[in-house]
Amino acid sequence: MTAERLSCDLAVVGAGPAGLAAAIAAAGAGAGVICLDAFSEPGGQYAMQPSQADSPFVATAPARLGREAAAAARAAGAEILCDAEVFWCARVPRGFGLSVNRGGRALVIEAKQLVVASGAMERPLPFPGWTLPGVIGAGAAQRLLKTGTGSLPLAGKTVLAGSGPFLLAVAQSFAKAGQPLSHFVEMMRPSPEHIARLFMRHPGKLPEAMRLGLDVRRTGAARLMGHMVTRALGTDTLEAVEVAPISASGSPDITRAKVIKSVGTLAIGYGFQPVIDLTTALGAKHDFDAALGGWHCCADATGQTTVPGVWAAGETLGIGGAVPAQLSGRIAGAAAAR
Q1: Domain count, the chain
Q2: Is residue 241 domain-shared with residue 137, that is, in the same domain?
Q3: Is 134 helix (H, G, I), strand (E, B) or coil?
Q4: pTM for this structure?
Q5: Which of 103, 137, 108, 97 has its CA nearest to residue 120?
Q6: Which one of 198, 226, 228, 290 is most buried, by most CB atoms within 10 A?
Q7: Which domain covers residue 289, as residue numbers?
Q8: CA distance 172 to 294
Q9: Residue 53 phi, psi dihedral angles, 5° rounding
């Protein structure tokens, strides 16, 4: 079978906030841009688009951001190809060659320049039973709620566990979808003093944090702070979840563990790490910084990596959120279009 071939000045890998911002900036500067994304709609994980017209997520700010950014990119002249997964990339005589699986069909794109804005992936933390059917990532649970029918497919209780602010956002998605949540299990137990210092440094986050906290209450979940999942139990599929309090040493106290029975879904999340497959394959320099999510691509102030012709944007450069991702995408797209 002969692969379809396309060419462009700039290929942008990823149609999340960073990739769309890069496409807008580059196309607006006159470059011929093709923006690719593995999902069926542009927006990425943050600004994912609901598949149901009556979904309660249609009117949310992230969904509007995704729609507006995609429309702006197309209006600027960029071509957005969804359901397009880049599985190989290498330097070719006239720039870079990308091999793409687009809905089961082969596509080859030749681009003079490249912006990698492939986002982040959930950071796994293995534990006994973590491969049982019914154990999924917290981000996967949120995607099912937002882009599916608004419910999880498995019967039984749902437990949301892990650590970090993203858990609150996922709990908010459960509340907005009207889905019950049995238990909310957070590894950390921040003191009132720690919380006060945090909001003194970031006072603008207080209203959002209050909304998220209220949404956790709306789910009706039993909250277990300072606990973590130690085992997922079941024979052929998930049946129960064992949780234990965190001791003073930072380890789970198994002697005080308890089992949550009749569980159908365990959604678990311990933060994110940058997706660096393409930048690694292309030979770009990477560095490790736990505060940025671990291994991330290194770049200068414009997003230019150590590989000539390759820019990086968004969380490929380190975990930072949607607003910094958009800014870095805008800068990288403008620089790549020069």
Answers
A1: 2
A2: yes
A3: coil
A4: 0.89
A5: 137
A6: 228
A7: 4-121+273-336
A8: 27
A9: -60, -30
